[in-house]
Amino acid sequence: MSEMGSKIAKKRKDAVEEESAAKGSVSRLLRDAKGRTVRLTFFDEEADIDLFNTDCRIVDYECSWMKIEADTKKGRIEKLIPLSSILSLEVKEDK
User: Fold this and answer.
1) Domain, as residue range, for 30
2) I want to staple 88 with a disulfide (CB 3.0 to 4.6 A). Which of 21, 37, 41, 93 is the partner?
3) Are 61 and 82 in contact (CB under 8 A)?
4) How many structural domains are present in the chain?
5) What is the pTM of this model?
6) Strands (E) located in 1-95
């Protein structure tokens, strides 16, 4: 393999390892937060008006989706949210 080819292969390998570590971190975070109360912040273009400034509970998650439930002015709602739309997740203290 040429020197150029080995550099490209190393970059690809590093990128795959980095992606795997990121997915593992997100999975651990969601596993620990499952069933707990959280406050979600969304990217501007992905904003969910029903969940703005609302505490919700993570019901379940799988791959790149998360099911949540929340009490809103409209009553109790359940939603399926793509993880890619979430900017931050704050775990609240359970009472």
Assistant:
1) 3-91
2) 41
3) no
4) 1
5) 0.66
6) 37-42, 55-62, 65-72, 75-82, 86-91
